[in-house]
Write a structure and sequence with these properties.
CATH superfamily of the largest domain: Periplasmic binding protein-like II
Distance between the termini: 5 Å
CATH architecture of the largest domain: 3-Layer(aba) Sandwich
Helix content: 25-40%
Number of strands: 16
CATH topology of the largest domain: D-Maltodextrin-Binding Protein, domain 2
Strand order of the largest sheet: 1-3-2-4-15-5-16
Radius of gyration: 20 Å
CATH class of the largest domain: Alpha Beta
C-alpha cells in the first residue's frame, strides 16, 4: 500500500468542490416483477435484460425509455415514486417510460451500456464515472438536497461503543450498502486506506437503511452510509460543525407524529436527514443507539445521466419535463421523498465536476 495521509483525500475532494463552483449545497436483490398500465408506464423490478433485435423509435410502447434507479433505498418505495415520475414525464412528453430497479449498481451500469440509445439512469457519482469510462454515458443533472450540491460518507458505530477514531476500526466487522456505492463503499474504502485500517468481515446489505440497521441490531461493529446534514432551527449546518447533534438533543430524537420524519428537540425543530432517518420505522430509537464516528469531505451529488446514444431531441424534452416536475408537489412523493433519494431539486451538471471522483478511483486502483 502506498504511504499517504488522510489529508490527500481531503485535497482530492476539495478539488471536486472547486469543480462544482464552490457549491454549498444516496436493496437487496429484487426477484419479482410489477407492471402498471397507468399512463403507459411499465415498471419492472428484476434482473436487467438486453436484446439484439431492431429497435422501434425511442419512447414508443415498442421501445420505451428505460428509467433506471440504483437500489440504494427500499425497492417498493423506488418503484412507487418512479412510477409517479414516469407518469409526469409521459404527460409532459407523450413518450412511454419503463421504470427499472436493477439488482445492484453494476447491473445499472451494464444496462445503460447495453442499451445506449434508450436508457436514462439516476446513478451516484462513482457509478457515473465508471459508466462514462466504460461506454460514454453522459451526465445531465445532479441532485440538490436542501441547497447542497454535495453530500458525504459517514461511519456509523454503536453509541455505547469505545470507538473514537477511524483507526479503532481495525479488524472490525463492516456493513455497507453495495460495492458500487460512492458514499457507502468507494469513499470509505479510501478513508480506511489512508488511515491504514483493514476492516474485518464485510457485509453487503443491499441498501443504506439496511447498513444502518445492521449496526443498530448488533450484527456488525460499524457501517458506512450517506450523510446529509441535519436541518437546524437557527441556521444552516456547515462543515465546521460536528455532524452529530448534542447529547441532550439526541435524547429527544424520534419519529414525528405522522411517522414520516425523524426529528429532535422538544418541538421537533431539528430534522435528521442522514441514512438513520430512513430506519426510523424499524428502529425509532436509532439516534439513541447509533452515532456518527466520522464523515468524509464533500462528494458531488448523484446524477441523472443518459446512455451515450440517447437521441438529443428526446433528451431535451425529458430534461425540460424534469425541471418542470421538480417544481411540483408530486416531486416530493417521488424522488424528492426522503425515503427515496431525497432530491429537493436538480441543477445542471458537467462531466468535469466528477474529475475528483475519477482521481479517487485511480488511487483505489493503485492500492
Amino acid at each position: 500500500m502506498k504511504a499517504r495521509t488522510w489529508a490527500s483525500m481531503s485535497v482530492v475532494l476539495a478539488l471536486v468542490l472547486a469543480a462544482c463552483g464552490g457549491d454549498a449545497s444516496t436493496d437487496s436483490t429484487v426477484a419479482a416483477e410489477t407492471t402498471t398500465t397507468a399512463a403507459e408506464v411499465t415498471t419492472t423490478v428484476a434482473e436487467t435484460t438486453t436484446t439484439t433485435e431492431a429497435m422501434a423509435t425511442v419512447g414508443t410502447p415498442e421501445n420505451p425509455i428505460k428509467v433506471l434507479f440504483v437500489p440504494s433505498a427500499e425497492a417498493a418505495i423506488i418503484v412507487t415514486g418512479g412510477e409517479l415520475m414516469a407518469e409526469a414525464l409521459n404527460e409532459a412528453t407523450g413518450l412511454t417510460y419503463e421504470v427499472i430497479v436493477p439488482t445492484d449498481y453494476s447491473a445499472t451500469i451494464e444496462e445503460m451500456c447495453a442499451s445506449p440509445e434508450n436508457t436514462m439512469g439516476f446513478i451516484p457519482g462513482a457509478a457515473y464515472v465508471e459508466a462514462s469510462a466504460l461506454c460514454g454515458v453522459d451526465v445531465s443533472f445532479k441532485a440538490v438536497r436542501f441547497g447542497w450540491g454535495v453530500y458525504w460518507a459517514q461511519i456509523l458505530v454503536p453509541r455505547d461503543s469505545d470507538f473514537t477514531t477511524i483507526e479503532d476500526l481495525e479488524g472490525k466487522s463492516w456493513a455497507f450498502p453495495d460495492g458500487g456505492s460512492t458514499s457507502g463503499f468507494r469513499v470509505p474504502s479510501l478513508m480506511f486506506s489512508e488511515a491504514g485500517v483493514t476492516p474485518g468481515e464485510q457485509v453487503e446489505t443491499g441498501g443504506h437503511t439496511q447498513a444502518a440497521l445492521a449496526v443498530y441490531n448488533g450484527e456488525v461493529d460499524f457501517a458506512t452510509t450517506f450523510f446529509s446534514p441535519p436541518l437546524l432551527p437557527d441556521g444552516n449546518w456547515d462543515e465546521t460543525m460536528a455532524p452529530e447533534l448534542a447529547d441532550d438533543i439526541i435524547a429527544t430524537c424520534g419519529p414525528n407524529e405522522d411517522g414520516d420524519k425523524l426529528v429532535c428537540g422538544t418541538d421537533g425543530e431539528y430534522r435528521i436527514l442522514d441514512a438513520r432517518a430512513s430506519a426510523r420505522t424499524d428502529a425509532p430509537d436509532i439516534m439513541q443507539k447509533v452515532r456518527i464516528l466520522a464523515i468524509s469531505p464533500g462528494i458531488p451529488n448523484d446524477t441523472l445521466s443518459f446512455g451515450p446514444e440517447f437521441p438529443a431531441d428526446v433528451r431535451a424534452q425529458i430534461e425540460a419535463a424534469l425541471v418542470a416536475f421538480a417544481g411540483t408537489d408530486a416531486w416530493n412523493e417521488s424522488i424528492g421523498n426522503q425515503d427515496f433519494y431525497g432530491w429537493t431539486g436538480i441543477e445542471p451538471a458537467t462531466d468535469a465536476e466528477y474529475d475528483g471522483l475519477r482521481r479517487i478511483e485511480e488511487l483505489l486502483a493503485d492500492e
